[in-house]
Write a structure and sequence with these properties.
Length: 169
Amino acid sequence: MNKILPALLSAAALLFAGAGSAQAATPTGTDYYFTPGSYLTITDHETFGANEVKTFDLSNLYVGRITGQTSKLFKVSRCAGGEVRIDLEITLKREDLNMNRFEVFAKMFEGASCNSDDYDGGAIDGWMNAFYTRPSLINSGAVVLDIANKYEGGDFAKTSFQLYGNAVY
């Protein structure tokens, strides 16, 4: 007993001393997603007959990952009616471990197929969108954009979304 008690006390002292000096892990990056309720609606205007309308649920869609303090361009594309495509070009800027900013350029393309590169209009939302990345806090910047075909007819689209980031360890 005389030998066991001092050994147990020494082991306990080492455990408690080590626990006090441990630091929380530092995130290596951030994974970005659309928040629940985010959507994109595209209307393919038809001269004869009913318009083709398609709503895309963007909820929890993975946008991408950024590591370090940098900017990165991400693109999400959706098409309706086989000829009207919207590209959401989202430039995310990770300013530090917690602060993120983003801008969005929504581009409309309309042609013979969803692969057309015939640019017909767009809308932009600048760098005022900001949100924090923390393991227990989601605080997002919101974007609402109306995109109209400015050159050929009545095609239009609307998007409303927010982003959130999850720290990656």
